[in-house]
Amino acid sequence: APLAGQLRGLAEFVLLYAAVQLPFDFFGGYLLPKWYRRKHPSLQGFLAGLARGVAVHAGMLVAVASGLLLAAQAAGGLGIVLAAVGLLLVLLRGRVAIAAALAPLDLTPSSPVLGDEPALPVLPTYMAESADEGFTGAVVGVFRPRLLLLPMRWRETLDPEAFTVAVRRRQLAIQTGGWWRGRLLAIGFTLVGVGMAAAIVGDARLATAEGIVSFSLVFTLWSFLGLLVLPTPSRRGVADVDRRLLAAGCDRNDLERTIRLLDDLQDRERQRPPVIETIFHPVPSVEARLRGPHAPGMRGCWDAARTSVYLSATGLGLLGRAVHCNCGRPALWAFLPID
Question: Among 83, 195, 241, 252, which is least packed, fewest CB within 10 Å?
């Protein structure tokens, strides 16, 4: 088939995915928050925000699909892997811009908050204002931390001691090596999945729209596997940071209060059944963290699970905005909630 027809077929696939996802977006982004009396926009505001987010996300997936098709036609499976590396770097380097395109995000430069330890990293810091109370910001960078993004809502809702604890945790996530390990795990998991999906589909089929769709579906299964296995090293990363913070002299009462206050902006699940937490949740429940911090065995990989969800767009994965914490919430599609 002509290239134009192949590209049109890929665009139709992305639009079909967006249409299938819409009822889940409405349920997760509007109905559930309304039923549980959580902060949520008006119906008109929700639909306008969702339309913007879906349009940007669909455009991004069409661009990814087109790039993968052209790469496969040029160099088969190897081309797919090389294209995925480039796409992955674009997603990480342009993460703030992508987030601002998906949903309003206002950034205000802020003075770095320094902890008591001179070894704590000092990064350019920005306060980010998002309408979604679940927005948690991030440590932004590819292989090295480049800037610290903090929610404006934290400064408005946390007391000074709790805000300081929250910021020091981000700094310690870098200092302990948890951020770096989490980033490497997320990148490695994504690229292994891309290579595996390309090998399963085969060079001949990858050069067609049908092959790219099949590649997307295989990679989506790989992403689902990541939802099951990556939360464990991510939870260990959270425990590493909590333990290091207490060892550095943080008052345990301040840490416990901060954990509870931040959970009020998220699921408000103070405890979860162990099986559910083990499989699906990269951030331990409040009760699990208050009983700890426990970090047995291997070192943790902070934020690996949810970074890999964001990076799944690299392989045309279909779960990037379909997990429980960001379904129907465009403000959380680029920066999924973390601890």
Answer: 252
